[in-house]
Amino acid sequence: MEAWYYWIIAGVILWIVEIFSYPFFIIGIFGTSSLVAGLVAFAGFGFKAQLIAFCVGSLVVAFGVRPFFNGFKARRVVKTNVDALLDRACVVVEEIDANKESGRVKIGGETWKAVAVNGRIVPAGERVVVKEVKGCTLFVEVKS
Q1: Under a CB-based contact definition with an 8 Å cutoff, are residues 31 and 15 in contact?
Q2: Reported CATH class of domain 81-142
Q3: Over the stretch 31-43, which tens digit does the pLDDT of each residue have?
Q4: Residue ranges of the domains in the chain?
Q5: SS3 for 24?
Q6: What are phi and psi of 81, to 5 degrees?
């Protein structure tokens, strides 16, 4: 079997592995470079030229194409801890009054001490949105 067969077979196998692996497009770099080296071998160049084509192809794909494809990956950011509370709606369960230093809201099955951002009184049952978290206190504003 000629050398270009091996390069093409290696490239196809590496791309199959890339398809079923975690999407970082690393194995695909070598798969693409193997296909390039296979084309160089098919053109009749020697083994040294095939290796150079493989190395140059790897560098070009790694630094030129990979960043482009990685931009398409979904960059899903999962908020955790207090960051997960920001911009969430909740219900006032105890009237929020800055003068009495009282007020509680229920969010996610838990009750938290709450303060109105604008300092106004918010009656129980009102829907509010969390704007800031300081310690164990949620700073909320009336949902519009």
Answers
A1: yes
A2: mainly beta
A3: 999 999 999 999 9
A4: 3-70, 81-142
A5: coil
A6: 55, -135
